[in-house]
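Exercise 7. Given the components listed, write out the predicted structure of the assembled complex. Treat all entries as one system.
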Amino acid sequence: MATLGKLASFRLPPLPTVSELVKLYNLRAEKQLSQNFLLDLRLTDKIVRKAGDLKGAYVCEVGPGPGGLTRSILNAGAADLLVVEKDSRFIPGLKLLSEAAPGRLRIVHGDILTYRMDRGFPVNISRQWEEDPPKLHIIGNLPFNVSTPLIIKWLEHIANRSGPFSYGRTPLTLTFQKEVAERLTASTSSKQRSRLSIMSQYLCTVHSCFTIPGRAFVPKPEVDVGVVRFTPLVQPQIQQPFKLVEKVVRNVFQFRRKHFYKGLEKLFPEACRVELTHEILERADVDPTLRSTEIKISQFRALCDAYAHLCSLDPSLINYEFREELGQKKLKTEQSRKMDTRTDTETKDSIEA
Ligand code: SAM
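Answer.
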């Protein structure tokens, strides 16, 4: 009974439903902002359960919109919920929620892509990286065009233990377009295995929680949605700078249908490409005829270590970008083609003269 009493104290007092709020404040979803609302509190409760035990926890919710997920987080007993919402139309509705949960909901009207979360919570909630995660959670149902760049930015923060991860190994529970969720969690040899799989899995335990059918959202998006939970690893599986790992992985996944060395060799300038590709493969001891999707993270680790070694011998290598060289070559060809045309015209003019 005592527990029930305690639980009851977390719960919000009677409020207009989220759908009523949407109507009350005329919160039409903006299609160009990819706003799709979750109005079914059973589903938002389910997302929140996947985030773990929120009783007495600090939580940052990204993109609360009309506040369905926000209510579930408050009902789960979060002690301090900070929401970051870009669209000002949602602020009055969120203020109403904040009044219903005194002292538990803080509203930031801002952009999560630039918001400094490392300043959002008290320093004393921090845990050492090697310890259990802090009692801080990040939860969000964001537009798809924001959630992918955001997770890439946060993965870099995880590698550097900065931003939301200056508090320790803060777990994240986020929604993605189903196809992206599948890429994030894809294992070796899966068709969905991609750059995102390696970048997320070398830094985190990545768990696919469940799929929400598109029809559960208002308005209904074209695609289904996957809920994914990330917990940063104590020891990243690759211990090289994030940018170096990102560069190796990007090059390797360049030509998915070919043997992976075709992409790997583009890490090196043309003049030394054959020699250094041979050397990196020897050092890493990876079969060059594998496809990028077949390479395990331990093999990516060996490739990154070998590449870091070659960069330590020739520091100019790290700045080499195949695409830039390709771009410059194209520009030169274009320029010389123009020159040729001009010379032709000039020659023609002089002949006619
Ligand atoms: N979480 C709500 C729900 O589940 O019903 C709303 C979901 S809607 C897909 C995404 C929300 O994120 C919108 O309220 C939108 O205004 C907000 N949003 C979009 N980009 C944002 C950004 N860069 N920073 C903060 N909020 C953003």
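Discussion: The first strand starts at residue 37 and ends at 38. Residues 184 and 197 are 4 Å apart (CA to CA).
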